[in-house]
């Protein structure tokens, strides 16, 4: 009988003992609640104890969490509009304040609240600057300003915002086409200017080349005329010297050259009077003393 009654008691004791113990993982933090009130905070990993059946344990992340904001349109100081979104990293630092701020919503509720904080901080900072600064290296300073505001506003949530990064800074879709068209027009104008300058430079080079051709051709023609004149003079001197040494042989040789040139070809014909001086060496067996040929 004792065994029969002892077994339920042992089971009840075991269940009670187990319900009074909880384990906290290294990646978690825990709150012990009693009727919704915080009774114990356990941030270290290991075993914890609570009142069985009365108190409950709620676990929260101890790791760094990430938050991607929704894209938003921001009006800059220069009245330009940009589509901006950001990525933030945060972690829970005060479990009691976090529980009070998020109630039963936990991390999801905290994500929504942090998103609202960033949705207000980003326009507040970027609305006081220009597009050039947002798109330059100065944007790191802007992100630090946004981080400072987000940290201040997130303290009441029991969380610490570790970092904020602007992940997108684009023009709205409605302005992209106009911007691309303006950029295309500017590039086309620059290309037209370059083509015009190139054409002008090519025209100068072409004119210089044409002038050089004319000058070189004129110089070559002048030198050729000089050489031709010198050659003609030398030839005439040789002919005159040959004539002075033997006028008869010179006249005979010139006549034979003239006969050869005029009678060249199978069907050559000459029409002139038979007593012409041209046929003198063909007609007379004796020697003749023709007049000295004119110098060429």
UniProtKB/TrEMBL annotation:
<feature type="domain" description="Band 7">
    <location>
        <begin position="19"/>
        <end position="183"/>
    </location>
</feature>
<dbReference type="InterPro" id="IPR036013">
    <property type="entry name" value="Band_7/SPFH_dom_sf"/>
</dbReference>
<dbReference type="InterPro" id="IPR010200">
    <property type="entry name" value="HflC"/>
</dbReference>
<dbReference type="InterPro" id="IPR001107">
    <property type="entry name" value="Band_7"/>
</dbReference>
<dbReference type="GO" id="GO:0006508">
    <property type="term" value="P:proteolysis"/>
</dbReference>
<keyword id="KW-0645">Protease</keyword>
<comment type="similarity">
    <text>Belongs to the band 7/mec-2 family. HflC subfamily.</text>
</comment>
<protein>
    <recommendedName>
        <fullName>Protein HflC</fullName>
    </recommendedName>
</protein>
<keyword id="KW-1133">Transmembrane helix</keyword>
<dbReference type="GO" id="GO:0008233">
    <property type="term" value="F:peptidase activity"/>
</dbReference>
<keyword id="KW-0812">Transmembrane</keyword>
<comment type="function">
    <text>HflC and HflK could regulate a protease.</text>
</comment>
<keyword id="KW-0472">Membrane</keyword>
<keyword id="KW-0378">Hydrolase</keyword>
<dbReference type="Pfam" id="PF01145">
    <property type="entry name" value="Band_7"/>
</dbReference>
